[in-house]
TrEMBL record:
Keywords: Cell membrane, Membrane, Transmembrane, Transmembrane helix. It comes from the Archaea. The chain crosses the membrane at residues 38-69, 153-173, 185-205, 225-247, 267-286, 306-335, 367-385, 391-414, 435-457, 463-484. Pfam families: AA_permease_2. It comes from Methanimicrococcus hacksteinii. This is Putrescine transporter PotE. Its main location: membrane. Coiled coil: none annotated. InterPro entries: AA/rel_permease1, APC_superfamily. It is found in: Cell membrane. It is a multi-pass membrane protein. Gene3D superfamilies: Amino acid/polyamine transporter I.
């Protein structure tokens, strides 16, 4: 999903002097096949890391099933997105679809399309804070092994230091220009899959995996599927889709496949199967190796004790360093994507023109600095939560954005399939017949049930802070959009 985000930011309505580029210059070339589309999506499994502990706390071993159900939901939604990608080839990503459909009408429709883009931005912007806190927690486990004098340094300080150092370095590096998002995607896939695969597979060969840790802890003892349990489960599923439905990348690249009619379903099906296996397998491996209690004790960084158990202290250091490198690459990708998303929304008239400015290398430095400050604030705000639940709390807040982005995009799919303005457009790849009703049901699942569930889960897990933060950030779009519209009217009357 992160690569989808970058692709949307970098390809949708690129600016030139005096306005927007014409449609020909934004047309995407059909230059990849299903294998390349699949490779770009292979960094997705690492997105499970912030949620392993939270899922185990609330669902115990049944978290394994929850991940599987979430990936299956991804199959349903991504078929719709695959069709949209080939129907609107210049509208890249979920926000692009919503703006192409709703933005073609009234000001209200344009606001809805813009809000979808803002929601998608908020879904991925906090990746910087989430993975900085994860890096700090993993560092706190390995630094004392070779630097004992730093054994007393808290994970909070390491997270803040990691965030400041990484964000500053990336701003300085990207000020000189940024490389292709696709290249980053390939690197991300390699660096994320290797350590994740090695750490989670090894326990099966070393004898550290015990099936009774799963079968003996299937559900929490007090679980009875009452209203409270159902709401928690809906909240978990809303959180899960932030990660497990992220392989929409394979669908969103529809306009760039050489043969979308065959490449899209191949990439979707194979990528979905890989994600189905990886999400289920990783949670199962961690649960079977550490047990539910072991995961809860190491909620933020459960792969650290796994790596130490299997490889010993120094082997664990090597594996975790590789994992941290992958996290830095995710931060880099999300940082670039977030900044270009704000820049793109400013160019489209959905955010103030201040954010449309770039430096001589074409980098939106103003947006990058604002995003860095915002994420340092998130680290400071959530690093001190009880039970080290900072990453999960930030993810829960940002998942609110993903709920709205998915819901609005699925409504856009239904509108595109029924509105006379869109229903006769060419669709090189088509979802199964009647899929508009399935998509509509998923839209309501997101905008009603998941929304209620994640608010309840947030309140149960970390208080009202994450929910309040999420709604405040989403609501900020309204005055920013009003400001942008006022600017447009002033320029038009000048």
């Amino acid at each position: 999903m992160i690569e989808v985000f970058v692709r949307y930011c970098c390809n949708y309505n690129k600016p030139i002097k005096g306005g927007f580029v014409d449609s020909d210059s934004t047309s995407l070339q059909r230059s990849i096949d299903w294998k390349q589309g699949l490779a770009i999506a292979l960094g997705v499994p690492l997105l499970i890391l912030p949620s392993i502990g939270t899922f185990a706390i609330y669902l115990w071993a049944f978290a394994i099933v929850a991940w599987g159900l979430s990936v299956l939901q991804g199959f349903i939604q991504n078929l719709a997105y695959g069709e949209m990608a080939t129907t609107f080839p210049n509208a890249s990503g979920l926000p692009g679809f919503a703006q192409a459909v709703f933005g073609a009408g009234t000001q209200t429709g344009k606001f809805i399309g813009g809000f979808s883009a803002w929601s998608y931005w908020f879904a991925w912007n906090p990746v910087l804070a989430i993975y900085s806190i994860l890096i700090g927690d993993y560092l706190s486990g390995i630094v004392p092994m070779f630097l004992p004098e730093f054994a007393g340094v808290s994970p909070v300080l390491l997270s803040i230091a990691a965030g400041i150092i990484i964000f500053t370095a990336l701003i300085l590096i990207n000020a000189r220009g940024v490389s292709s998002g696709a290249t980053v995607g390939y690197i991300l896939a390699v660096f994320s899959l290797i350590p994740l695969f090695v750490i989670t597979v090894a326990p099966f060969f070393t004898g550290n995996f015990h099936m009774e840790n799963i079968t003996g802890s299937w559900f929490p003892t007090e679980w009875n599927w009452g209203l409270s349990n159902v709401l928690i489960f809906l909240g978990i599923m809303a959180t899960a889709q932030w990660s497990a439905c992220a392989w929409e990348t394979a669908a969103i690249y529809g306009p760039e496949y050489k043969n979308p009619k065959s490449d899209v379903p191949k990439a979707l099906f194979i990528c979905g199967l890989i994600c189905l296996f990886s999400y289920v397998f990783v949670q199962a491996s961690v649960t079977g190796t550490l047990g539910v209690e072991g995961i809860i004790e190491q909620r933020v960084s459960p792969l650290l004790p796994m790596a130490a158990m299997v490889f010993g202290d120094w082997g664990a250091i090597v594996a975790i360093v590789m994992l941290i490198a992958a996290m830095v690459l995710i931060i880099q990708t999300a940082f670039n994507g977030s900044a270009r998303s704000m820049h793109s929304m400013a160019i489209e008239g959905n955010l103030p023109s201040y954010l449309a400015k770039v430096n001589s290398k074409g980098t939106p430095m103003r947006a990058m600095i604002i995003i860095a400050i915002f994420n340092i604030f998130l680290i400071l705000l959530f690093s001190f939560l009880e039970a080290s639940s900072g990453p999960a709390a930030i993810l829960s807040a940002s998942a609110l954005g993903y709920v709205f982005a998915n819901g609005i995009s699925l409504l856009a799919y239904y509108k595109a399939a029924t509105d006379p303005k869109f229903k006769d457009l060419e669709r090189p790849f088509k979802a199964p017949k009647g899929w508009k009703y399935v998509a509509l049901a998923c839209a309501f699942l997101n905008l009603i049930f998941y929304l209620v569930g994640i608010v309840y889960l947030n309140a149960t897990d970390a208080g009202w802070g994450p929910t309040l933060l999420g709604f405040v950030v989403l609501a900020v779009f309204a005055p920013l959009w009003w400001w942008a519209q006022k600017e447009k009217k002033s320029k038009a009357s000048a």
